[in-house]
Amino acid sequence: MADEISSDRVACDRVRANARAARVPLAPDDAGRIARAVASVAARFAAAEIELPLETEPASFLLVQRREISP
Amino acid sequence: MLERIARWQPVLNAFVRVEADEALAAAKAADRAIARGSAKGPLHGVPLAHKDMYYVKGKVSECGSKVRKGFIAPATSTALARLAAAGSFRIGALHMSEFAYSPTGHNAYLGPACNAWDRTCITGGSSSGSGTAVAARLVPAALGSDTGGSIRLPAHFCGVTGFKPTNGRVSRANALPLSFTLDTVGPLAVSAEDAGLIMSIIAGPDPLDPTTLGAPHWNAKRTRSSPKGLKIGVPAGFYVDDLEPDIAATLAATIDTLRKLGAKISKVELPDQNVVSAAALIVLAVEASSAHAPWLRTRAADYGVQVRNRLQNGLAYSAVEYLEALRWRGPALGAHLDAIGDVDVIITPVSRSVAPTIEATDLGGAPQAEAAIQAITRFMRPVNFLGLPSLVVPAGQSKSGLPIGVQLIGRPFGDELLIALGRGFQAETDHHRRLPALQ
Questions:
Q1: Considering the domain boundaries, does residue B218 fall inside one?
Q2: Per-residue pLDDT for A3 more than 80?
Q3: pTM of the model
Q4: Could you tell me what percent of chain B has a pLDDT over 70?
Q5: Banded model confidence at residue A71, pLDDT cuts 50, 70, 90
Q6: Residue B50 pLDDT > 50, yes or no?
Q7: Interface touch B327/A69, C-beta < 8 Å
Q8: Do A64 and B333 touch (CB under 8 A)?
Q9: B82-116: per-residue pLDDT in tens?
């Protein structure tokens, strides 16, 4: 299952497209190397199938963190 | 101190610059001030050196890189300004991994820093010079930075005390960024008491770093509280699988010592740390790639191959993946706090092993490099993603004589309690006082 996800999620084409969009040139072998390096991480995160409420934003972290401030 | 640095710098490669003349002048000025009865503060006359990523206006700060060779800082970092206001002066700048983006202490541009306990071993990184310089007592303390373990790993591998504060506790203004979400500034020092003193000076709100606004001021009184009655959680699974026997034995011995100090020990079941760790890697990779994108476009050949590869890795993630990881940070912290209940501190190893050799970890751009880096930083990343404070204290030695640290992870803004626990532990043990037999 994890292998299927990893091979699907980060393909060389996607790496090349993202790099073009970011205007970062890559050598011919880079896309494959990058895809292999990040595939397991992307797969692990995707497999968790995290469902976030619509209202959750990055700054929601501060609300949780600062509940811990003691008087 | 300058003589000691001159003696050991060729062996350890701890410094990138030694500013001997300026340091001597500052020391003499400090002496004159004391004679006049006008000491500046709690660090008056204390020589310090820091990772070469803390800017001092008008001074070179190369951040361990060829890309920033000769870079003159336009402003002084808030952390260094506060240390100077407390009376310390700078004796030089310390080695670091290129752009703070390697956990080993290798640097393709500067060569590796070497571990004071065994020069063939890594220091850990990215605060490589800070770790080995404090271990060799070339400086009494040094600032590092921690985005994925960069204070805690050198503390463990070099046998010193390292403190990564709660995100928002110390200003990052005018220090090199790597990941604006995960970066933290903290000390490496001989003892928890010294780390606490440095924290008391550098912590606190700073208008130049909005993440510090609203965070509490440092409470020095709390750092002197007793560990008696503290609730310490021991996680299983992720943090204890496949440990080297010396690491496992040190962890067990430390738990025994803390129990004898009156701490209440219990097991805790944490949320899946593999997912938390993956989220940390995604956020770090994308933010680092974004920060370096202009140089990746124009100066890619000026990076060491491993750092360039890692910076390019961030290009692979989609915007949705990155933002899902970032948006999940609050819920993930909430789940962590729910899981630990009223536990004050979690204890874990820092690494599965003691310091490996420089040669064995000199992987450059090899295919296995990313996996090796992820293995070294395995127990580090959840702390960064959740923004938690963490103290690493020396707690033992391997049969081969290399130091072993343990990691004490607190609740958000529980920084002072960690220092108190470290002080209590170090009052009962002498691991932090042991010196490497420099040869």
A1: yes
A2: no
A3: 0.97
A4: 100
A5: low
A6: yes
A7: no
A8: yes
A9: 999 999 999 999 999 999 999 999 999 999 999 99
Alpha helices in A1-71 (DSSP H): 2-9, 12-21, 30-47, 60-66
Instruction: For residue B439, tell me if it sits in a domain.
Output: no
Number of domains composing chain B = 1
Q: Is residue A47 part of a domain?
A: yes
> Residue B371: inside a domain, yes or no?
yes
Query: Which residues are B209's β-sheet partners?
Result: B206
Range of the domain at A33: 2-66
Asked whether residue B51 is assigned to any structural domain, the reply reads: yes
Rounded mean pLDDT, B33-42: 94
Q: Identify all chain B residues contacting A45, using CB atoms and an 8 Å cutoff.
A: 275, 278-279, 282, 321, 324-325
Which residues touch A27 (CB under 8 Å, ≥6 apart)? none
Domain count, chain A: 1
CATH for B252: 3.90.1300.10
Residues of B in contact with A70 (CB under 8 A): 216, 413
Are B181 and A50 within 8 A, CB to CB?
A: no
What b/e string do you get for A1-37 counting C-beta neighbours within 10 Å, with b at 16 or more? eeeebbeebbbbebbbebbeebebebeeebbebbbbb
ipTM: 0.93
Express as a percent the part of chain B with pLDDT over 90. 96
Of B121, B122, B189, B124, nearest to B150 by C-alpha is B124
* Cα(B273)–Cα(B104) distance, integer angstroms: 22
Instruction: Cite the active site residues of B.
Output: 51, 126, 150
Q: Is residue A71 one of the residues assigned to a domain? A: no
DSSP string over B158-183:
HT-EEEEPPTTSB--TTB--S-TTT-
Burial code of B88-97, b = ≥16 C-beta within 10 A, e = fewer?
bbbbbbbbbb
Q: By residue range, what is the domain housing residue B101?
A: 2-433
